[in-house]
Amino acid sequence: MGEGTPCLIMVKPIGTGAVPKEVDRLRNVVDSASMSKSLPACPECHEAFTYEQGALLVCPMYGHEWSKDSTETTSEAALIKDAAGNVLADGDTVAIVKDLKVKGAGGGVVKVGMKVRGIRLIKDGMGDHDIDAPVPGFGRMHLKSSVVKKVL
User: Fold this and answer.
1) Top-confidence residue, 67 or 5
2) Looking at the domain 94-150, which fold is it?
3) Other CB atoms within 10 A of residue 83 CB
4) Long-range contacts of 66-70 (CB under 8 A, 24+ apart)
5) Handedness of CA 117, 118, 123, 125 (dihedral sign)
């Protein structure tokens, strides 16, 4: 390029997650009709500017790539189901379906049939413990969804 010719260089921020001001400005300029409404947003940065490249979906903002199939299975995998296959949600009431030995804090046993109200679904529990709930007589603890049944 000759002198005096403007050149736009996009620099990818490293580890900050912050979006450059130029990108914010460009978002407002881009014609929304030119973007496909059928493509999902990027699962990592949640940007709507995705496009297809062969069998992959690509996020041009930060270079994330994922397959179309993974977006369909993620929504199904994100559902947490109880021992009977019912979908659980935050605030549900569940019943314990088998005796649970409590480790630490004096021990004890959570008996079958005990109702636990106001559960909270978590993704960062230890192992496959995906429920955080106040268990009567024991306080707040993490439970596996496979040992509870939703009270309908």
Assistant:
1) 67
2) SH3 type barrels. (2.30.30)
3) 17
4) 66/42
5) negative
| Higher pLDDT pick, 26 / 55 | 55
Q: Do domains 37-77 and 94-150 have the same CATH topology?
A: no
Spans of all domains in the chain: 37-77, 94-150
Do residues 126 and 144 make contact, with C-beta atoms less than 8 angstroms apart?
A: no
Let me know: does 119 contact 132? Beta carbons within 8 Å.
yes
Structure tokens at 95: 């019943």
Q: What one-character-per-residue DSSP string does 103-150 give?
A: PSTT--EEPTT-EE-S-EE-SS-STTEEEEEEETTTEEEEEEGGGEEE
- Write down the CATH number for the domain with range 37-77: 2.20.25.10
Mean pLDDT of the chain: 76
pTM here? 0.50
Name residue 18's amino acid: A
